[in-house]
Amino acid sequence: MIAADGEGASKLLECTVSGAKDVPTAKIVAKSVICSSLLKAAMFGADANWGRVLCAIGYSGADVDIEKIDVAFSSAKGTVSVCKQGSGIDFSEEKAKEILLEKEIGIEIQLNAGTAKAVAWGCDLTYDYVKINGDYRS
Prior knowledge:
Shape: globular
CATH architecture: Roll
Strand content: 25-35%
Mean pLDDT: 93
Order of helices and strands: EHHHEEEHEEH
Number of strands: 6
C-alpha cells in the first residue's frame, strides 16, 4: 500500500524475480528494476520496453547470464512475454498497452539460473510525482 500511495503515482509496480541462483541475487535484481527511473517512466507511458528491464538488471551488479533472462509484463488484463533468452520477441503492442494501462502492473523476470525468488514493489514515475517532489523544500 505504501508503494501505491507515492505522491503523484498512478500505478503500483510489482517486480517478481524467479529462477535466481540465490535469494540475494533475486533481491538485488528485483530492487534494481523497481528503482529504475527509466523503467518507472516506461510503465507510466504503458510502454513494454523490455530493454529498460535488462538495462536495470545490468547495472544491478548481480551475477546473471543475460542470455538466459525472460521478461513478461502482467496485469488484470493478462500477460505478455516480451523477451526470451535475453532477446526481444514478437508480441502484440496493442495487448501490451492494454495490460500496462492497468493500475497494478507485474514485471515478471525469470533468470533461469536456479530456484530462488524475490519480490519488490514500487510505483511509476509520473509528471505529478516529479512536480510534487520538486516543488517543496525540506
